[in-house]
Amino acid sequence: MSASPEHDIHAERRIGVFGGTFDPVHNGHLHIARGLRDNLHLDQVIWVPAGRPPHKTGQIVSSDSDRLAMLKLALGDSKVDRISTIELERSGPSYTVDTLERLNAQLDPVNLVFLMGEDSLRDLPTWHAPSRILQAARLAVAGRPGIETDLDLIVEALPAITGRIDVVPISELAISSSEIRRRVAADEPISGLVPPAVERYIVDHHLYRSRQP
Fold first, then answer.
1. Pick from 140, 146, 91: which is nearest to 116 by CA?
2. Distances (CA, A) of 66 to 88, 145, 150, 181
């Protein structure tokens, strides 16, 4: 797959939306967001910590307040990143389509771009109301160099994706939140995997120590 970003000259702002449990947020998340933002010339990235994602039932370990605090530390005083607590404030399952439609209503006029990894792209046809997701936002996919997803199969399952996707090769950082949690629980170092301020927060608040990843 190749990147073919298209710019809507009529949109006042191109804003990326990056969702995840961020438990904890790590340097891989920051790397993907920065790469997609720079390659697609996004004005801003909105980070959306997940409330209760239906596909990750039981996988959130830390409290909402801890995940939010770590995300704030990771982003610091960045002028091109901000956080939305829209999913943390909503009860029930957190569906991406609801988040995107609400952000569209709040930010209108805006051109939303939903940021995701290539692994999530493969699962997109099984998400809740995927056609509405594609009406609410373009997709920006962080492609892994050397790995080709069969886009034809995805188009066959989800025709609405045609013309609504940009795939950008991003060098991979082999970091996962579950591995970080495992390393902390095993008293192994995590330096270089998360921003220093996030590492300090994890240590100071004794996160991931008494639970399995």
1. 140
2. 12, 33, 38, 14
CA distance linking residue 191 with residue 180, whole number of Å: 10
Rounded distance between C-alpha atoms, residue 111 and residue 164, angstroms? 12
Q: Classify residue 156 by its DSSP letter.
A: H
Pairing of strands 138-143, 111-117: parallel
Q: Is the peptide bond before 109 cis (omega within 30 degrees of 0)?
A: yes
| Segments in the chain forming alpha helices (H) | 27-39, 64-75, 96-107, 118-123, 130-136, 151-157, 177-185, 196-204
Contact present, 47 and 18 (Cβ < 8 Å)? yes
With contact defined as beta carbons under 8 Å apart, do 46 and 71 qualify? no
Q: How big is the CA angle at 141 (ends 131 and 174), to the nearest 5 degrees?
A: 135
| Among 56, 183, 168, residue whose Cα is nearest residue 118 | 168
Euclidean distance between CA atoms 197 and 76, whole angstroms = 9
The values of phi and psi at residue 156, to 5°, are -65, -40
The residues pairing with 138 across neighbouring beta strands, listed in sequence order, are 113
The tens digit of pLDDT for each residue in 34-87 reads 999 999 999 999 999 998 766 655 567 899 999 999 999 999 999 999 999 999
How far, rounded to the nearest angstrom, does the alpha carbon of residue 3 sit from its chain's CA centroid?
Answer: 19
